[in-house]
Amino acid sequence: MARKDREKMAETQQIMANSKVEAARLNDKAAEKQLKCKMLDTYRELLLTPTTNLNAHALAEREKALECICGKAS
């Protein structure tokens, strides 16, 4: 009887461990999607911001930021 109890306990622990791994994987995937959404929001804001009052340096920095975000979002 004790052996069956140990086997059942080991099986239950394995199921719980597998569930924790799956939950961690799903949390990681959700965090990655949230990061991509935030990057796309930032990209959109940069695209929509008026540039008429920006000097050459600010325009160059804006262009670098857009290229960086665009490259990471894909």
Describe the structure.
- By secondary structure, the chain is mostly helical.
- The protein has one domain.
- Helix content is 88%, strand content 0%.
- The chain is built from 2 helices and no strands.
- It has helices at residues 2-48, 56-73.
- α1 runs antiparallel to α2.
- The chain starts with a helix and ends with a helix.
- Keywords: Coiled coil.
SSE diagram, text form:
Layout lengths: L1 H47 L7 H18 L1
Helix pairs in contact: 1-2
Quick overview:
The termini are far apart. α1 runs antiparallel to α2. With 74 residues, this protein is an all-alpha fold.
Kindly list the characteristics that best describe this protein.
single chain; 74 residues; mainly alpha; 88% helix; 0% strand; rod-shaped; coiled coil
Q: In percent terms, what proportion of residues is strand?
A: under 5%
Spatial gap, N to C terminus: 57 Å
Please state the average pLDDT score: 89
- Secondary structure class reads mainly alpha
Shape: rod-shaped
**How does the major sheet shape up?**
none
Low-confidence stretches: none
The strand count comes to 0
Helix count, DSSP H or I runs of 4 or more residues: 2
Q: SSE string, helix = H, strand = E?
A: HH
Q: What is the domain total for the residues?
A: 1
CA-atom Rg in angstroms: 24 Å
Report the helical percentage.
over 70%
Keywords: Coiled coil
Coiled coil: 9-36
